[in-house]
Please model this.
Amino acid sequence: MSTLAALAHSHPMSLRTIESCFGTLYSTFGLRVEGDLVGFAILHLIFEDATLMDICVDPSEQGRGYGQMLLQAVIAHAVHSKVETLFLEVRSSSLAAKHLYSKYDFKESGIRQSYYKTENGNEDAILMELAINR
Model:
């Protein structure tokens, strides 16, 4: 997963952080094509809230609907787990991701200024949330 994250993100979570996401409060989703891992998502569940920690698709496989498939699986799991609100953060420059989340009715709820590192400094994180079982 960390190799895939390094391909897909300019500043991915560390291997140690990814490994910490395999516990009782987390659900992980993998997407394989012909046996190869092409995408994954990590969901952190706490009581009635959940946070999409990461969603990642191999850059060579992007544009084929795999991100949408992963997001659908995450939302279905959140519904099944009786989550009331699903939260996430997205880079302000990630137009494709913001479009995908908006398509599934995520609403912008705030900004974390200069949250993500970039090659030239930092960029804002857009906070988004989806009301599910309310």
Q: What stands out?
A: The mean pLDDT is 88. The chain has one domain: 2-131. The longest helix spans residues 66-80.
